[in-house]
């Protein structure tokens, strides 16, 4: 793959799950546990799940996931199942079961040494973000960390305005889902799509560049 280079970038905004963190195994386990609960309370039919049917929800905020997955589910059950997923993911992170993509931290360190401002932007909960901050010492790499829960789960392109107020342009957004790439539809930013993550190729079609390994980001900048 021919990889273009970018000039004039000062701030790199990175998604987390599917970009830096490989949350496949943990999310599948959390989803199946929550779905089993819904089956047990007669709110869902028993069924087997393919991994891809589950991981397609990675990258969505909790609110958006349930609105698309089971929009008719009563709020009390949605809340319980959502908390179950969040708690399972949290426990796994705290127990050292979270896994980053190979070369992720080394790439962040290399970019930091080049002088880029690095910003964490994820559709996750605050407690999840903090657990991963502690597990991997993310403060060593990121200048600031933003999660959508702290902004009422508004879209990333709206949160970008807060980032823009804190950090200098030009901006590069790196992620594996349409929620990352669509920031460029609303703001003058460049985008890099991560083909190794959880999105579908068509979600990343408008990205300025595509990478198949997080380490390729160091070649871009």
User: Major β-sheet, in short?
Assistant: 6 strands, parallel
For the record, the count of structural domains works out to 2
Beta-strand percentage range = 5-15%
Categorize the overall geometry: globular
Q: Would you tell me the structural class of the helices and strands? A: alpha/beta
What is the subunit arrangement here? single chain
Can you identify the CATH class of the largest domain? Alpha Beta
Provide the gyration radius in Å.
17 Å
Brief sketch in words of this structure:
Pfam families: HAD_2. This protein has 221 residues and is α/β, with parallel strands linked by helices.
Task: Please explain how this structure is put together.
With about 220 residues, this protein is of the alpha/beta class. It has two domains: about 10-20 and about 100-220, Rossmann fold (3-Layer(aba) Sandwich); about 25-95. Helix content is about 45%, strand content about 10%. It is built from ten helices and six strands; from the N terminus they run βαααααβαβαβααββα. It has helices spanning about 25-40, 50-55, 60-70, 75-95, 105-115, 125-135, 155-165, 180, 185, 215-220, and strands at about 10-15, 115-120, 145, 170-175, 190-195, 210. It has a six-stranded parallel β-sheet with strand order 3-2-1-4-5-6, with helices on both faces.
């Amino acid at each position: 793959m021919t990889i273009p280079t970018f000039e004039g970038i000062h701030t790199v905004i990175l998604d987390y799950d599917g970009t830096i963190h490989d949350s496949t195994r943990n999310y599948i386990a959390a989803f199946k546990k929550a779905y089993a609960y819904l089956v047990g309370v007669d709110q869902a039919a028993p069924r087997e799940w393919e991994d891809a049917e589950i991981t397609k929800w990675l990258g969505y905020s909790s609110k958006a996931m349930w609105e698309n997955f089971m929009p008719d589910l009563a709020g009390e059950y949605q809340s319980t199942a959502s908390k179950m997923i969040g708690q399972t993911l949290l426990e796994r992170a705290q127990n050292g079961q979270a896994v980053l993509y190979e070369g992720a931290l080394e790439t962040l360190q290399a970019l930091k040494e080049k002088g880029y401002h690095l910003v964490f932007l994820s559709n996750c909960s605050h407690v999840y973000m903090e657990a991963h901050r502690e597990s991997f010492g993310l403060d060593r790499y990121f200048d600031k960390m933003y999660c959508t829960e702290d902004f009422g789960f508004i879209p990333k392109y709206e949160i970008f305005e807060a980032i823009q107020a804190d950090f200098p342009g030009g901006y590069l957004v790196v992620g594996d889902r349409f929620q990352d790439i669509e920031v460029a539809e609303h703001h003058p930013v460049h985008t890099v799509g991560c083909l190794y993550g959880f999105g579908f190729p068509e979600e990343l079609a408008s990205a300025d560049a595509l990478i198949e390994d997080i380490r390729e980001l160091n070649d871009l900048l």
